Structure formats: structure tokens, C-alpha cells
């Protein structure tokens, strides 16, 4: 016999699946598990870091220029990039301040001309500085949407990677540590909630007979979680004075009279 779930008494603790599964894994198995745990932790860190970046309210200049560099509008990146000069030479504005790397980008997006750097603009790119300011806004809105889409796609990929790593690790852990125990047990004891959490364990154990007590208070979907494709007999036990199932949504109850009747006992 084996008990699924973590709740137990001193007398039943030895029946827990975890207790019976200890010392089953060999050194190679633990080495593999630890390696996969490290991969999962690293993936989670990347996801957390990128989630923080994704949640920012604004798109920074670096984001925009990085996008432009590899987009179909890469010409704009070439135009907005100020050529590097020897350290002894600096570009100076009319006000006497040094020019930063975002100078051309800032002047263009504000509808201004390239100012003191007009001589760096090639004739073939001069038309960009004559584009109507309203067109500037539309272009930037398009770029921002594309950047957000790209970031969203990356975020989804990171989430999926974490999910895959977790599922693979969990599956391997179950297979190596728990399945050996479950395959040799004739009786499994658990609540319907635990049955839902340990669905893979039930599939391995393949119980052909499922016995559920206090069924009058259990929802139908909870009954289904305790069953597998191998279930041949389902035995429901209840007290004839037992209360009906408890639900938290009045709109799904018998009293609402919408014929949803989620809290109707299976024996009514």
C-alpha cells in the first residue's frame, strides 16, 4: 500500500510515496537530475530578468536602434549612427556641448534637421530629413509595435522553455524515483485533490478498481480525476444524511435555478 500526498500521521508516514521512494535513485540519476535542475534555475533567472525588462513602460533608444539595425528599415540605422572619430576629436553642437551617439536620432524624431552634422548625411539619404513629421510618428509607432511583438515572442519562448524543462525534470524524477514503487503496489490511498496532482502516478499504477467514500460531497469532476483509462469498476460510498457538494459560486448552485446545479449530489 502507498499513500499519495504529504499529509500523514506518525503511524502512516511510512506509507507515503516519498518515504518509500527514498534511496532508489543511483548516483548517475541524481547527477542527471541536478544538471537538469541547474538548467531550469538558469532558465527561470533569464525569464525573471526578461520579464522585468518587458514590463518597462517605455522603449529605450538602444531598443529602437538595435531593432532598426536588423530590420528592413536598416537604412535609418545607418543614418542615425554617428561615425566614430579618434579620441582626440569630438563633434560639438552650436551650444558648445559634445554630441552623443543619439544626436541624429533625437533630432530626426523631433522633426529637426541634423544641425552641425549635416555634412555627414549623404545626398542619397537627405530625403529622410524632409519626411513630414506626421510620417515620423507613424514610422516610430510601427517600429515600437514590432519591437513589442519581438519581445513578446521572446518572452513566450522563455516561458515555454521553463515549462518544458520543468515537465521533463518532473517526468524523469517520477519515472526513476516513484514509478518503481507504484508499479508494485496493489492499493493507493489519496484524496480526489491529490489524485488530480498525481495523475501521472495513477496512470502508472493503472488501478482497475476505484473506491471513493463521502461521495455525496464530491463534485463530478473530482470523481473523474481519480479515474484512468484502466478503471473497470467505480465504487461510490456515501452517508444518506450527507450534505451536498460545496461550491463558491452561487450562480452555479441549485438555488440559482439555472439548471446548472453544480452542487447537486451524485446520488440525487
From TrEMBL:
Pfam families, A to Z: AAA_11 (PF13086)
Top-rank lineage group of the source organism: Eukaryota
Leader peptide range in chain numbering: none
InterPro entries: DNA2/NAM7-like, DNA2/NAM7_AAA_11, P-loop_NTPase
Residue ranges constituting the DNA2/NAM7 helicase helicase domain according to the UniProt record: 29-246
Gene3D superfamilies with a match to the protein in the record: P-loop containing nucleotide triphosphate hydrolases
GO molecular function, one term: helicase activity
Entry GO terms, CC: nuclear RNA-directed RNA polymerase complex
Biological processes per GO annotation: regulatory ncRNA-mediated heterochromatin formation
PANTHER family given in the database record: DNA2/NAM7 HELICASE FAMILY (PTHR10887), NFX1-TYPE ZINC FINGER-CONTAINING PROTEIN 1 (PTHR10887:SF341)
Official protein name in the record: DNA2/NAM7 helicase helicase domain-containing protein
Organism encoding this protein: Aspergillus luchuensis (strain CBS 106.47)
Amino acid at each position: 500500500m502507498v499513500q499519495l500526498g504529504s499529509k500523514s500521521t506518525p503511524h502512516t508516514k511510512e506509507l507515503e510515496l516519498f518515504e518509500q521512494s527514498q534511496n532508489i535513485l543511483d548516483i548517475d540519476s541524481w547527477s542527471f537530475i541536478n544538471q537538469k535542475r541547474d538548467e531550469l534555475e538558469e532558465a527561470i533567472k533569464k525569464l525573471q530578468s526578461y520579464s522585468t525588462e518587458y514590463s518597462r513602460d517605455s522603449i529605450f533608444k538602444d531598443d529602437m536602434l538595435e531593432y532598426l539595425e536588423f530590420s528592413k528599415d536598416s537604412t535609418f540605422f545607418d543614418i542615425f549612427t554617428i561615425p566614430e572619430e579618434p579620441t582626440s576629436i569630438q563633434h560639438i553642437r552650436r551650444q558648445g556641448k559634445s554630441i552623443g551617439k543619439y544626436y541624429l536620432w533625437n533630432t530626426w524624431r523631433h522633426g529637426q534637421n541634423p544641425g552641425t552634422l549635416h555634412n555627414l548625411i549623404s545626398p542619397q539619404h537627405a530625403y529622410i530629413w524632409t519626411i513630414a513629421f506626421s510620417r515620423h510618428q507613424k514610422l516610430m509607432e510601427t517600429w515600437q509595435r514590432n519591437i513589442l511583438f519581438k519581445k513578446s515572442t521572446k518572452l513566450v519562448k522563455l516561458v515555454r522553455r521553463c515549462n518544458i524543462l520543468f515537465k521533463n525534470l518532473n517526468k524523469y524524477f517520477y519515472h526513476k524515483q516513484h514509478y518503481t514503487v507504484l508499479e508494485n503496489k496493489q492499493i493507493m490511498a489519496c484524496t480526489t485533490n491529490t489524485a488530480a496532482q498525481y495523475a501521472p502516478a495513477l496512470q502508472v499504477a493503472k488501478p482497475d478498481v476505484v473506491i471513493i467514500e463521502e461521495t455525496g460531497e464530491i463534485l463530478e469532476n473530482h470523481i473523474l480525476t481519480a479515474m484512468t483509462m484502466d478503471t473497470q469498476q467505480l465504487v461510490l460510498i456515501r452517508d444518506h444524511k450527507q450534505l451536498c457538494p460545496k461550491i463558491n459560486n452561487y450562480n452555479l448552485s441549485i438555488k440559482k435555478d439555472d439548471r446548472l446545479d453544480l452542487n447537486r449530489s451524485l446520488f440525487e
